[in-house]
Amino acid sequence: MTPILLENQPVWNRLIRFEDVNGQERYGEPIDDDLDVGIALHRGEDVYARIVQAESALDLSAVLSEDVVQVKRVLAPLRPEEAGTIRCIGLNYREHAAEMKLTIPKTPTMFLKATETINHPSGYIVAPHCADLHDCHLDYEVELAVVIGKTCKDVTEDHAMQYVLGYMTANDVTARTHQNEVSQWDRGKGFDGFAPIGPVLVSSRVIPDPSVLQLQTVLNGQVMQQGEASDMIFTVPKIVSFLSQGCTLQKGTIILTGTPCGIGVSRNPPVRLVEGDELFVTISHGLGSLTNPIAFKPSKHNGHFIEARI
């Protein structure tokens, strides 16, 4: 069955929010449809985008111009005030449940991340304070992010895709020590900058069936996570419908849909993110890669960290 998509589709297929070489913030569409913007900028390659005349990624009246400019730095596609709420689903991949030795849940497990967690695709991930900083056990989780393009409530699973604007790569960064201190996951997953998103927002028109997406985490050249969205226990339509029951999902709401197997804490021995790591968090079909560096000294990278929250 072909899903019914958002009625008023945006003019763009792959949207980026970025700074040009003059430091001006703009919206645009990469001129190379196959380019992984995050990796290209990380390698110092030239990236160009056709300007999209818009005030927001949520602006469905945006106009695609013929003007092309060079991209200096790519920003999170949505600002925190546009997202409003980040709703997250835990334990949503069958292989991940198996590696954690947990039973398959009958209903989605939900938690929230504050909008202060939103981070740019190459912004520093700063570890929270610990008595021994390296004991906080900083961990990665590649996740598909769904962006709601039209406010909804009490939607059925069959009609859920009518409210999906598009998809992004996300990293549900987690401080395992803090997560295990309390019963609620918000603590270990809710620190500032713990939700890098982007580099690209891909229209749901381009990917009508998100189950085809492939997710990967590469740490220092080693593949740590390699999964497919088809392994999800609860599909995107199911998740959108579930979260909307009795709850208004405002336009701009970001939904993180869970992570595949291979997280650091499940490995033997456990793997921790440390300063100097090269971390690539990637999703296929044009969503691209997050390339966030790791920092254990907030004061040292404070300027970058503040920028990650605007």
From TrEMBL:
Its name, as the record gives it, is Fumarylacetoacetase-like C-terminal domain-containing protein
Q: Which GO terms describe its biological process?
A: oxaloacetate metabolic process
Alphabetically sorted, this entry's keywords are: Metal-binding
The source organism is: Hypocrea virens (strain Gv29-8 / FGSC 10586)
Q: Does the keyword Metal-binding apply?
A: yes
Family (UniProt): Belongs to the FAH family.
**Record-linked Gene3D superfamilies:** Fumarylacetoacetase-like, C-terminal domain
Q: Where is the Fumarylacetoacetase-like C-terminal domain?
A: 85-294
Key word Metal-binding present in the record?
yes
Q: Which GO terms describe its molecular function?
A: acetylpyruvate hydrolase activity; metal ion binding; oxaloacetate tautomerase activity
Query: Cross-referenced InterPro entries, in alphabetical order?
Result: Fumarylacetoacetase-like_C, Fumarylacetoacetase_C_sf
Pfam families referenced in this protein's UniProt entry, alphabetically: FAA_hydrolase
